[in-house]
Write a structure and sequence with these properties.
Shape: elongated
Oligomer: single chain
Distance between the termini: 18 Å
Helix content: 40-55%
Number of helices: 8
Radius of gyration: 23 Å
Strand content: 15-25%
Length: 225
């Protein structure tokens, strides 16, 4: 699945990060990842029994599931970069006030509008041309940023395409729009999911193996893998 924060983007943001262990006492940990102690893309992983909290430049999120949350997130031994944001999101206890968890997807809405246009039963060819022209003038809904705007968008299209009531069946509205999943995970949430997975991997490796993982990340970043 393609996410708003791609793996190469995350690896680029953290390419020079190093790990500092501030606390490591069983399920109680505080681990910092940063470049020369800079705040840019810095993040901290905090764990205590039953919880994991990530804080830093790209947001703060708290998850709860297992006694040791490193065990919860360190689920895949084959792919050190594998993330499961949907399932992990079910375990969220606190969500970053700026980054959020999910947001309205303009791409999904635009795709839905185009699909609806292809399936819609127009009164005649002139009606179809009028609606298509109205949709194209609005980039097929590509600038819509919320569900409320989406509903108003259809009112606008109908009025634009049929100002004089020429066509009886001119209501281009999508019925039960709220039933469609038009949300996507936010960039910050995905970035933090990648940071958690990557950070735990660094903690598990340490030492020379940490350097080997850094070389693997660099290969992915340059497209060699």
């Amino acid at each position: 699945m393609t996410y708003s924060c791609t793996l190469p983007r995350f690896l680029s943001d953290t390419s020079d990060h190093r790990m500092t262990i501030l606390q490591d006492d069983g399920a109680n940990r505080h681990i910092r990842f940063s470049k020369s102690n800079s705040s840019t893309y810095r993040f901290d992983l905090h764990t205590w029994p039953g919880f994991l909290c990530i804080t830093g430049d790209c947001g703060s999120y708290v998850f709860s599931r297992l006694y040791d949350m490193f065990e919860f997130f360190d689920h895949s031994k084959r792919d050190p970069h594998d993330i499961n944001p949907s399932y992990w999101g079910q375990k969220l206890e606190s969500i970053d006030k700026n980054g959020g968890y999910k947001s309205f997807s303009r791409d999904k809405f635009q795709a839905l509008v185009k699909e609806h246009f292809a399936d819609f039963e127009f009164d005649d060819k002139a009606h179809r041309r009028a609606v298509k022209a109205a949709l194209k003038s609005e980039d097929w809904g590509g600038n819509i940023e919320s569900m409320d705007e989406a509903y108003r968008f259809f009112d606008h299209i109908d009025l634009d395409a049929n100002p004089y009531g020429t066509w009886d069946g001119s209501n281009f509205r999508i019925d039960e729009l709220w039933d469609h999943d038009l949300d996507e995970f936010t960039f910050r949430y995905i970035w933090c999911c990648r940071a958690i997975r990557w950070g735990i991997r660094q903690y598990r490796l340490g030492g020379d193996r940490f350097d080997r993982q850094a070389k693997l990340d660099a290969s992915i970043l340059t497209g060699a893998l």
